[in-house]
Amino acid sequence: xxxxxxxxxxxxxxxxxxxxxxxxxxxxxxxxxxxxxxxxxxxxxxxxxxxxxxxxxxxxxxxxxxxxxxxxxxxxxxxxxxxxxxxxxxxxxxxxxxxxxxxxxxxxxxxxxxxxxxxxxxxxxxxxxxxxxxxxxxxxxxxxxxxxxxxxxxxxxxxxxxxxxxxxxxxxxxxxxxxxxxxxxxxxxxxxxxxxxxxx
Length: 200
Ligand SMILES: Cc1cc2nc3c(=O)[nH]c(=O)nc-3n(C[C@H](O)[C@H](O)[C@H](O)COP(=O)(O)O)c2cc1C
What we know:
Layout: E1 2-7, H1 15-29, E2 33-38, H2 50-53, H3 61-72, E3 75-81, H4 89-98, E4 105-106, E5 118-119, E6 125-131, H5 136-143, H6 146-157, E7 163-169, H7 177-199
Parallel strand pairs: 1-2, 1-3, 3-6, 6-7
Antiparallel strand pairs: 4-5
The structure holds flavin mononucleotide.
């Protein structure tokens, strides 16, 4: 089994980095091969170019590498904080540039792109770990939980990926080290469960 693990957080001592390390350690323990990428550390360029829009391959070697890895991965992990109800721009750029046709989705012959897509990520498992500073009731009632819609419907649903789990850890600003340890354990357990379910 193989996993792509993508992290978007600029500070190496952040809770998000701790989730990233926890997920990678657990996957290694379970003998899953990992393609782990800290997008800031790798200086991933999130900006789509005009030339890239019209081609299947990019001039940017990182984009091609991430796309190749995505295709052969059984698990797709995305770890990032809630920034304005969205992923940080560097992760949005990963979505724009890497989760691309014809590898992640395509349209039937004769369809110019206005019809229904053919999902190409079918059979993979998507797991998203998020952090935020808004309690659950306010997130749902006032903001409508936009990250759930982005990942579940706009990205994974669009690409035909059905096995999906997203966990939001909150409220980070009010958490102490004990609670954070519990959160990391929970992320490790979710990771292990996802791998074991798949291995059955
Ligand atoms: C640019 C920016 C935008 C943010 N927007 C939100 C937001 O919309 N909702 C929210 O609950 N928290 C928001 N936050 C708070 C972060 O989600 C919070 O700091 C982070 O999840 C904590 O995890 P960390 O310790 O790994 O940084 C924002 C933080 C920044 C820096």
